[in-house]
Amino acid sequence: MVLVNEGRVLIVSPAVASNNNGNWHTAARWQQFLSGPFEVDLDQRWDGTPAAAMIALHARKSADSVQAFRRAFPDRPIALVFTGTDIYGEQAAGAQASESSRDATHLVVLQELALDQLSEQERSRARVILQSAPQLPATDRAGEGARAFVAVGHLRDVKDPLTLMSAARLLRDSSPGIRLVHVGDALDAALAASAVQTAAECPNYQWLGSLAHEAARSQIANARALVHMSRAEGGANVVIEAIRCGVPVLASRIDGNVGLLGPDYQGYFPVGDFEALAMLLRAVHIDDVLHARLCAQCAARAPLFAPEMEKEAVRSLVRDMLAG
Q1: Mean pLDDT confidence for 28-44
Q2: CATH no. of 144-304
Q3: Do the Cβ atoms of 110 and 81 come closer than 8 Å?
Q4: Global confidence as pTM
Q5: Residues of the chain with CATH 3.40.50.2300
Q6: Alpha-carbon distances, residue 188 vs 89, 155, 157, 162 (angstroms)
Q7: Of 122, 96, 119, 120, which Cα lies nearest the Cα of 108?
């Protein structure tokens, strides 16, 4: 048996700090949680240095590292963390993802509904680890920021930014007081061009581009609500950050959102339905009772995403891996 305080744990994440995305923030947070009881390194890929165990985020993008580590150390544990595109969408059942799953001794999903996407054999090795965020009080909720609806997500197809832009066009004339603020880097040139054009034609829509993590969190904390239009998610960090800030979420009805917000949450809209999103934005903008109800529903979920809960779950994973 390998004692838990011996050896090195390697976290492999294809995302780096400059990507400023959910996978990077998860990997960095887990490194922080594990440091102390364990010796932990974080890298984009395995460089061949021996380690007692590996935690790999993203089944497809970390596949080479997972397979190389398994060949080098057939008896050492590997935990594979499934991200959204690993289990949802067109690339979910790819060969690389399947090989990574077979090589892993432990599997992790980031919300409970993701377990339904796994095979029976995979579920026997899987556990749910809910991500977390610290609480961040609003600084401007009584001011101008209180009227803004904020979306945070890089401009790429899976995040469905066009649905927000189309909703902005519908609201431009009918509800000009509704402000939409969009935070996210331009990962797709065509979507970036659409954002620029929408901002030029719709005074109620503002694209801020990429912001540092804390600046983006401040935008969320001071919003009327977070808007999350994604087509596929494993369990989005920004949704959790909104919940922990006391800010309700207007979310596409996908497993990754329902698994975090609960099946009875009243702030969903159909995926890609910009008319339904515009209607929901209008309702939450004018109806303080509805807004308060969504806030209460999110507040009831907030304890699930406390950092101490995720910290203990991640440490328990590594203890189980090393004791196995």
Answers
A1: 94
A2: 3.40.50.2000
A3: yes
A4: 0.89
A5: 8-132+306-323
A6: 18, 6, 8, 12
A7: 122
